[in-house]
């Protein structure tokens, strides 16, 4: 899987990737200059491939490009942010 396979479904407030018959996604809310990451979902059948990390990274890059701050309501996204200080400036 490559980053280019990740698509932004703005209407559903998600970044999504399809791998075979399965889909993984990051779900967010955007309000008042804050992008709140609420869920990172990757089915077990496609887990262990770094998909969640790439989805969160795509979401963070979107936030940066849009000039948004990030609030992490998702434990996976929080752990990702803890391990990637290059995104510390985005934290709300």
Can you walk me through this structure?
The chain has helices spanning 51-66, 75-83, and strands at residues 7-9, 14-19, 22-31, 34-41, 69-72. It is α+β, with helices and mostly antiparallel strands and 92 residues long. A hairpin with a 2-residue loop joins strand 3 and strand 4 (34-41). The longest helix is centred in the middle third of the chain and has 16 residues, at 51-66. The N and C termini lie far apart (30 Å). The model has no long low-confidence stretch (mean pLDDT 94).
Key words describing this protein structure:
alpha+beta, single chain, globular, 92 residues, five-stranded mixed β-sheet
Total of helices: 2
Binned, the helix content reads 25-40%
**Structural class category:** alpha+beta
On the 0-100 scale, what is the average pLDDT? 94
Q: What best-fitting shape do the alpha-carbon axes yield?
A: globular
Widest beta sheet: strand line-up: 1-2-3-4-5
- Report, as a whole number of angstroms, the end-to-end distance: 30 Å
Query: Which stretches are low in confidence, meaning pLDDT under 50 for 5 or more residues running?
Result: none
Main pleated-sheet profile:
5 strands, mixed
Radius of gyration: 12 Å
The percentage of residues in β strands lies in: 25-35%
Could you tell me the number of beta strands? 5
Summarize the helix and strand pattern as letters: EEEEHEH
